[in-house]
Predict the structure.
Amino acid sequence: MLSCPNLIIAGNDQPLMKVLFAGDTHGVTGDVIKVVKRARTHKAELIVQLGDFGFWEHDEMGTTFLNVVNDELARHGLEIWFIDGNHENHDLLNEQYAETGRVRENIRWLRRGERFELDGVTFCALGGAGSTDVSYRTPGVNWWAAEAISKVDVGIAAEGGPVDVLLCHDVPTGSPLNRAERLDQPNWVNTRQVQSRKQLDAAIKQIRPRLVMHGHMHHARYSSAWEDYDGTRYPNILSLSSTTKGHGNGRPWVTATVQDGTLVMHNQIRGLRSSGINLLDDTTDKMSRRYS
């Protein structure tokens, strides 16, 4: 029997009202410090990062990154909750932090299938993705096979039933950002990407979130719900770019107010009609006609 990690619920007496969501940070200390300061400027009380955070604790620079970021978070009274992307040391995460997810005092890994609730909005984390450049990487040094989403991950995530928001790193196949295979990679690399993405689709079909938020593609975009060939309705999708200079297209972070079951975006992003929209409202058209 598969079991979901413990549900984390923000207490009603101290709700986490404003959240900053960030895209890929790739272990760049300066970029994460900027995100932390931006969160403080915008009065966010939590940072949720959508994978490729930069967990490389097997490496001296990776350890320094975690320690410096943790100190900066502590100085501002903030935490980062990150999901794993395809560029993390998954083996070390699973070996040392699978029980609690607490990587540092102010840094928490949201394990695959982990759920939490913020003031009436439910979230489920499902990190992982297939790398596009495996042939240029070294196993156990800068690539780990556990990066891909598995059937076991999907089973754990789906066990808790529907959620409002699915937090993932990879992109659903129905997204306009779902790119074609890379010609400079062997077939097995592209096949792994496709298989991992199909597992994400399977999770979406079972969990039935109202919104999917993801990173990985280094593009920021909002997309409306779509229907699959079998008539299954899939959710709205919000993608965030990368904070790494020269590696992103569009906004790498957004802030949103989470209150009484609503998730209201405070920033404009490509494809979204305007800011100030409740992304969990299924009764209004949120797409900008410019990008439809």
In short: Residues 1-13 have pLDDT under 50 and may be disordered. The chain has one domain: 16-291. Residues 19 and 148 are 27 Å apart (CA to CA).
